[in-house]
Target: O-methyltransferase domain-containing protein
Amino acid sequence: MSGTAAATAIPSKTYDADAVKQILKDISTGGQRLEQNEPGSHETLLEQARRLVVALESPVESIYGLLIAEPSRLFAGRMALDLKLFDTLAADNGRPKSVAELAAPRAASPKLVNRVLRHLAATKMLHQTGDEEYAQNEISRFLEKPKLREGIRYVFDAVEPSLNKLPEYLSRTHYQNPGNANDGPFQYAHKTQNYWTWLEQHPRVLQAFQDYLAGVREDRPNFMDPGFYPVKERLVEGLRHDGDAAVFVDVGGGEGHALAEFNEKVPTWTGRLVLQEQEPVVQIAKMQPHASLIELTVHDFFRPQPLKGARAYYMRYILHDWPDEECRTILRHLRDAMEPGYSKILIHECVVADRDAPWQHTALDIYMMALFATQERTEREWRELLSSVGLTITGIWSKGTGNLSLIEAMV
Ligand SMILES: C[S@@+](CC[C@H](N)C(=O)[O-])C[C@H]1O[C@@H](n2cnc3c(N)ncnc32)[C@H](O)[C@@H]1O
Model:
């Protein structure tokens, strides 16, 4: 079949020409705003480009993308990790490589490797530069670095099996909203007792998860960036140094990247920076270049908080991992350690809008259902959760659409 015949095999959409014209005009204006570096212009233009695709695509084209292109793209990305394709593409200053060269590191079948590569090229993850010859594009160049690249491994190995079994799990639980941390979709799919135990038993995926989180962190505005949370006014001013009062503790802080960034971006901070994590994660944190700048401690946040009256108890991506009951236990331990009127809990999480919530929040919400039988929360849900343990929200700061917000709460 010729290229033209293949292209016309999918019925074309009778689209609204006026709507398309209007979107194109908006895109043109959006492009000018982007050139002038107007804040938010990137997000707006991207949204307009998505609207254009939706306006032009026929339902069949859109559904083919969902059914065929995207699942195969994730598979091809996962195979690229095992076949070391992103590394091989990067070698020799990224010069184009033949399929034979790309298949060599694993002594894989060139035919198999070509099938993976051509789908990656078709879905814009790399360039095809000739017959059976490929080179990096901006995406594959980015994937030379482990961080978000390892997200492919994590999502494929940990999240996808759970999503695949989610319909069966929901049918068995009579379509009730999952909320059992010990018997949720993840345990059902992976035949395990607990997400964290499963990760410990799969150290490669645990490392991939931590790399992925570090990648996500780099990609988003952080709360100490200008125009986000006023760190100087809310934390630095009035800092005391008696006992543990001058501590900023990152509860469940992963490898300690947030503390390292705080150390760099808030030079006026004269207090201590303490990481609290599970033992295997502390071991990974010890190998980080910033390890000497922070205190690394093992602490289970389901046990009483040992640091009393600290200035800040920071948690990023912690409470969305737990159903309300478990969150209340975590929060009560912090509340009991806090000094009223001085200590602050800082929750760095999604605050999901009641209407027109961005896909970044709604997608993560489904992931949370599949992984932890939990959810992303709306402002009302955050207020209810915190007030149920005697905490009051003293402010919510946000920057950009689809990002995390910073919720400050006090006793
Ligand atoms: C989603 S990750 C977030 C990590 C980090 N805050 C970040 O934003 O990159 C959740 C973290 O909670 C930690 N964690 C899970 N259960 C814990 C527990 N009982 N006590 C302390 N940390 C725990 C995990 O090891 C993991 O690093």
